[in-house]
Amino acid sequence: MLRPRMGTRKKVHAFVRVKPTDNFPHEMIRYGDDNKSIDILLKKDTRRGVVNNQQTDWSFKLDGVLHDASQDLVYETVAKDVVSQALDGYNGTIMCYGQTGAGKTYTMTGATENYKHRGILPRALQQVFRMIEERTTHAITVRVSYLEIYNESLFDLLSTLPYVGPSATPMTIVENPQGVFIKGLSVHLTSQEEDAFSLLFEGETNRVIASHTMNKNSSRSHCIFTIYVESHSRTLSDEKYITSKINLVDLAGSERLGKTGSEGRVLKEATYINKSLSFLEQAIIALGDQKRDHIPFRQCKLTHALKDSLGGNCNMVLVTNIYGEAAQLEETLSSLRFASRMKLVTTEPAINEKYDAERMVKNLEKELALLKQELAIHDSLANRTLVNYDPMDEVQIAEINSQVRRYLEGTLDEIDIINLRQIQEVFNQFRVVLSQQEQEIESALRRKYTLIDKNDFAAISAVQKAGLADVNGHLVGEPDGQGFGLGVIPFSFKPGKKIKSKKTFKDQLSIPVRKEGASSPLSTKELDISPSKTQLILPPRDGDVKDMRDRETSSTEPFPSDSPKEELRPPRPSTPPSKPVAFEDFKNERGSEINRIFKENKSILNERRKRASETTQRINAIKQEIDTTKEALNVQKALREKQGEYENKGLMIIDEEEFLLILKLKDLKKQYRAEYQDLRDLRAEIQYCQHLVDQCRHRLLTEFDIWYNESFFIPEDLQVALKSGCSIRPGMVPINRVVSLGEDDQDKFSQLQQTMLPEGPESVSFYNAKVKTEQKHNYLKAITGLQQVNKK
């Protein structure tokens, strides 16, 4: 439950950061004395003639101009207050905008090689964890996510982590009353500063970059790094807590294709970038116009994802990066116009308060106990000592039921009212009594009539022999002294003598109905799993059935290794056999056990699919019969309404044929539900069996690849070396390659510690995360290179 505490409206803060160059045009770019304005002066183009109305000067009023500013000064000016207020419950957004190569990524992320040159994003993470250490009275959790928008498609930059993996479905932008969120985007809990830096560096290595004439490492996508903060009070028992998020947006730079010389893929990326930035500017113009009712947020993924940030309930800051060169003045003017338009946008920052449901329940229980105590005191002062506000027990409910029955019979004139809970229970018992009477009436009707199924020829033959039907199959009514039945009475029947049925309705009804409970979901099926292998086997009887959770546990156990001892291995051939031939040998030798399990699982899967197909056919047949019975029943109802309806003591009288159709329809529906439940259980089993088959197939192929490399590629002397206590499995990575993976990185880290730590003691977590990320990616590169060599 989210309840934002409304605040006052405020303007978006816009700053300009000028990229330092050797040829700064002081006569064309001038700064104001207050360091909050920037003037652009151009010379008139004489080629336009004498009459020339070309504008030559522009002045832009902003919140600050950062020229030759260090990373520390940029963060203190732009982001520190936004991050600080985020821990108080205010959302924040910091966005870097500008042309390609103007320094947006350097401002946002910085240079990861040098701790002093880190940007806004790593500094914001450090500030968040520093403030958490200072606020000991609150339990604060931090989560992060990293989104990339590339060519109008959404990508999770942290999906390469082993515990995340790629998503099977594409990510989408979803809106709800709480705001906008990305469905499918992974959000990661970080308990310390180093973990957050590791996630940042992991995402940075996955970004799409390219090179053109204006930037060797140009970002080809928009990236949004989000920090989610949730704060609970440790001292107060209040159920309220606050949440906030900080969006750190690094936009791709706008490009003039004539200057960048982009071609091919880079040209396509530039088209998407310019298009999305154009839509962003349209949304900003609409937000700055107070008369506009509709804001075009859905024109592109960028504006849709930032809908909460652009003009929402957050603190927003824009950093416009521009070139300090005369050749780029046209793009500089465009960027400054965007910053001026952004200053017209107003936001309404508000504290995001939520309510903890568990703590709210506890507080309500305490309040309820206090109210009961106060009510008991009030009743004792008013001499109402017999009033009880606790839930009623079985004895009290039975007494109310007795009072209701006596009231309906007329032996009790009125029921005394004590409290509201007793009134509710009285009405409930009225409902119970009514339901019991309906059941009694239905059972009386069943005892009064003899019912059979007209489609059951065996039952019809039996009743003909008993004299209950003639040779044409017409049923005989049974006189009961109150009404009459329809049918042709046989000649052997005498008045006053009742014909007794030899079989009851349940004995005569021959429609096969499965017993309920014969197929409970996943626990009473004919499936079992060996405790030591991932295998499905048929049990000797229906009672020996195990739970599916036991099977899932056993399915994760390793397969047995049936490889012969090294001494018995045949000599290696000079030329490796082809993989199809080697695969057949592997299935007959080392992989025989896995192959056997795979075949048995597949046969059981096929058997379950066959049973599901048969069940589906039975369901379709029952459905057709239900439709036929409904049509016949509608015909009977129409005929009865046409001939006139008869009532006896308020009850509708129907003929025996219509009654038989009603019962038949009821039994068919019951059978349909049972069959459909069986089909659902079979489908669940099929899905589980398919999972086991796929698992066996994957294991079989993996074991074959390892066996093939061990048997035909790795030198025998290296295998002997690997056997001597090494944790690396043969066939995967050469031992000399693995040992050397982390040595260079460790040396680099030692050098960094000697040079950087004395100057910046707070940089330990920064460099730790950087070295670990580099080690991981170097290891992955080595694995990939070895796999490519093996393929060749």
Automatic annotation (TrEMBL):
Gene3D superfamilies per the UniProt record, alphabetical: Kinesin motor domain
Keyword annotations: ATP-binding, Coiled coil, Cytoplasm, Cytoskeleton, Microtubule, Motor protein, Nucleotide-binding, Phosphoprotein
Sequence ranges assigned to domain Kinesin motor in this UniProt record: 11-345
Basic and acidic residues compositional bias, start-end: 541-554
Keyword ATP-binding belongs to the record: yes
Record region (Disordered): 515-586
Any coiled-coil regions, as ranges: 354-381, 605-632
Subcellular location: Cytoplasm, Cytoskeleton
Residues annotated for ATP binding in this entry: G98, Q99, T100, G101, A102, G103, K104, T105
Family matches, as CDD domains: KISc_KIF9_like
SMART domains: KISc
Main location: cytoplasm
Entry keyword Transcription regulation: no
Name this polypeptide is given: Kinesin-like protein
Organism: Erinaceus europaeus (Western European hedgehog)
Primary gene name: KIF9
